[in-house]
Amino acid sequence: MRCHFSKLLISLLLTMAALVVFWQLADHEFVNFDDELYVTRNSHVQAGLTYQGLVWALTTTHVGNWHPLTWLSHMLDCELYGLNPGGHHFTNLLLHIANTLLLFVVLKRMTGALWRSAFVAALFALHPLHVESVAWVAERKDVLSTFFWILAMGVYVRYVERPGLNRYLLVLLSFALGLMAKPMLVTLPFVLLLLDYWPLGRFQFGQSSDDSNSQSHESINFSNQRSLIFRLVLEKAPFFAVAAVSGVVTFLVQQGGGAVRSLDVLPLDIRVANAMVSYVGYIEKMIWPRHLAVFYPHPGSSLPMWQAAGAGLLLLSVSGLVVRAARRHPYLLTGWLWYLGTLVPVIGLVQVGSHAMSDRYTYVPLIGLFIIMAWSVPDLLSRWRYRNIGLILATGALLSALMICTTVQVRHWQNSVALFEHTLDVTANNWLAHNNMGIALARRGKFDEAIEHYSETLGIKPDYAPAYNNLGIVLAVQGKTAGAVAHFREALRINPNFTSARKNLEVAVTGQRNSQ
Hints:
The chain is an all-alpha fold. A two-stranded antiparallel ribbon has the order 1-2. The chain is built from 24 helices and two strands. The protein folds into two domains: 2-411, no CATH class; 429-515, Serine Threonine Protein Phosphatase 5, Tetratricopeptide repeat (Alpha Horseshoe). The chain has helices at residues 2-22, 35-40, 43-46, 51-59, 68-81, 85-111, 114-126, 131-135, 140-161, 165-179, 188-197, 214-235, 237-256, 268-287, 305-325, 330-342, 366-380, 387-411, 416-426, 431-443, 447-460, 465-477, 481-494, 499-515, and strands at 296-297, 355-357. α5 (68-81) crosses α9, α7 runs parallel beside α18 (387-411) and α20 (431-443) packs antiparallel against α21 (447-460). The protein is globular, with a radius of gyration of 25 Å.
């Protein structure tokens, strides 16, 4: 009864803390970065829940992804709230709170550790790196897919406790639904194997025997372990098969949409180097969450190789230490491999887009590092006389600091101008932020300022066709038709398939002829 009350109280506190830092989203606007593609200029979504919308959601590869559940969730929001951005933000927040509470409950059931599980859930709820996934309407796929990820873990725990076909199929169904919200869930089968190791204890490595016939016992034990591991992997075979199909479909869809960068543009060595630096960069931002931005430009060949080599050496060293300590502290191996493994689809080895890293990609991976923190710190302080009071004070200070940082970070998402103004303040040579800032300013009628930002974009990235198109639009509005025509033509020279630029050019040329 006492444990039940404690769980209820902790759930209430987690909910209140998340509401305190994210409630300001009610007054936030949509932003001009993918929100238009997903909601504000998407007629299929704005029509709400219809049969035609369902068919479209199940068949479309719009924005380079197949995620029908994400589309349906946006349609439901439009059905409920229309284009009121506060409603769409509220749905994201509800899903984030649901993910937090689910994570707490599932971890508690797996480990039996009430307060450590609560600490992991609190970090998940309040860390500034997770703001992007919650405050960005277009990232509905993050919070929605994670709901099914954690739900699948919860059902899997129940299956392990009492195996049965129905429970197994429920796990598989939750996994499939998660993939229909965001394909990043392809790593879930790998995580289920990690959970088999710890905390579920379905197999253990390195067991020894004190028997006089220890050598023969170890041989038998090793054989049994190998057989057990094989059965556990075989148990996940349907999950790996579904993940493989999802991965192939996602790659083909993104490649067909032109989002996948070729090796000619970004060679493999540059991708590996950026991946190593990004792995360490995410850890750095977890520890010291400063200079967070919606877009980090890919450094390309300008990334120093010594930096990549240092990051790779650090990762290898930590991995070696974790493996050595895994026998006594198995949570280290589960947490570390969770972090490394769940980032693989988005670490840049298959480069999609022009970013080096993204805060939203840490939404699930950081859970692994949070687990390490929650279990290792109390273990390290186990012999300290004032351990309990020290942990309470440190936890309170840490969570208070995170709440302040997250509140400030959420504020940057108030509107497009605030978002990209902050992004430009904390990043360098950010051509996309300049371009989107120009769009936001142009919509406010600040054309001269918009032109300055478009010019900054082209100074950094001269072959960026959208900036020429946007610059042409502003010049056309100002009545400078000749300049507009020249910029539309330059956009089409760079990208002959640029439909918007072609239409704008036709309108500008027609207007130019009529004025003569």
